[in-house]
Amino acid sequence: MQFLSQPTALVGAIALAMGFSTLTSAQTVESTNNVNAKLDTLVVTATRSEEKIENVPARISIIEPHILEQSPIAALPDLLKTDPSINVVQSGGYGQQTSIFLRGTNSNQTLVLRDGVRLNTATTGSASLPFLDTTDLKQIEVLKGPASVLYGTDAIGGVIQFVSKTPEKTGAFITGEMGENKTYKSIVGADFTENDIYGQIRGQRVESDGTAVFNKNDLRKYSYDQKGMSAKLGIEKDNYAASVDYSENEGNNEYNNWGSFASQDFKNEIINLKGRVNATKNLEINARLSQFKDDLDQLGSTSFVHSITQEAELYGKWHYTPHQNILVGVTTRNIDAVTQDINEDINSTGYYIQHQYQSDQLNTQLGVRVEDNEKFGAHMVVQGAIRYQVLDQTSIYANIGSAFKSPTLNDLYAYGGNDQLDPEESISYEVGFDQQLPFNIKIGASAFYTKVDNLINSVCVKDCDGDWVSIFPVYQNLNVDKASMHGGEFNAAWQNDQIFLNAGYIYVESRNDEDHSELLRRPRQSLSISTGIQNQNYGLSASLVAKSKAKDFARDIPGYMSIDLNSYWNLNSHIKLFSNIQNIGDVKFKTIHSGGDQYYVNGGRQASVGVTFKY
Questions:
Q1: TonB-dependent receptor plug domain: from which residue to which, for each copy (predicted)?
Q2: What's the pLDDT tens digit per position in 64-77?
Q3: pTM, whole model, 2 decimals?
């Protein structure tokens, strides 16, 4: 593993000034940074409504608000790295292409949502993570395992959902943060709430000179600029609720295009209208209309990608006994993409039903979905799960589920495209337990297995021994008969008053079962550890992320370890000071093999300081 542990004098001074030196002068103030508040952790991804995380019969993890608030500069890929079950592969730093591999599944086999809105694009099947902003997020939920019953295609590996904030009180704030590589972010926002009516508005801007994306040959910096806004208006009553959300982000990023310097303009836009009516005491009806646009335009080139996903959904939840409910819904979806080579749209409709039993000792889910796709026909998936409270401090769970993923438009029509592809189909099994131990220690463990049939893979079909100079191999997308992912996951947490320690570890093997080769860019072992002291007045914390080596096309990707530091001080009820050092050792860890001795590398260290003024 690579690890450098000597920060610069400036970085060390920032940590000391913002961390240790503030401990003696902190004042008691009201703050949302108290991570020790005894509140239940609620999640929405597993059942479409709020549920205590300890009752969910599956493994679900949370990237919590205090982590999201530590550094506005921190890009979304860096936040996702804190979950060891997610391997984030980025070809550089800010704004560079990013793929995520959840529990060893492929990068387009994980569904990414924001408040229920699908962010996976129609072309690649993945979400454009570097261009999504985190300014108004409450938490990030990571549901591991198949979720096609509730969400349809793409959810073979699981679901990552960004849950946005809803205003709880009237106020306003402004935040500024500055860091290395001439990186700046500013945010301004205001919230309003009165008589169950709320409104929210945010504006933000990021600028960075960026970093080099290669370890040698090309050491130029690749810049990133982005600005955006979001607005939310809604009403929340006992018997009904309605809201409209709008957000957009646009900017420019520079990148390396097969050895040539290039840049592109990007823009993404989300419109989300939601409503709820409690028709009776036991019947709740929900509706959603949403649209997600994702546009990329290459500068100095005719290349472009414009993608639109539109959805309409209606579902009802009937609590027909105190412990049982039935969820019934229908979703219609249209995906549309236009590029220099593609002009296609595909419609699909999904019908689903899920039964749920909930008591103090037993929680179960049993569901089925039929998805009717105009191009690929009808597919049925099922899922069953159970969690049983064996003892007061011990629970066990098990689930089994099938899932599927339709070919993307790139799979069908881009380079190597094949319009005869079949959808990928999977079956997954998982068992696990959670245990509360003395001294406020909680542990949990899971074992899982996923088998994927008809895995879509790029396969050489002609001139496979070509030298890539005069003879170029020809590749085509084909369905590989079988692939599998299996492994285990362990997590532990301890908290004593203001001090905390969290750890997570995963071991996963991902293989092409036809030729027994290891699937690319999936390290077998991942570890994360975080510890610190946090309260209403001040905080100082450290986190470690480590990965073992992974296979790539020509050479292995070495393992690495990096450490982040964070500190904050609530000077009073209106002013918060904070400091961050991402990757304190400035480790240029390798992420993708490029050729010869050249690799893509991450962005290295990012030290920053910031201040928030709030009213």
A1: 53-159
A2: 888 888 889 999 99
A3: 0.92
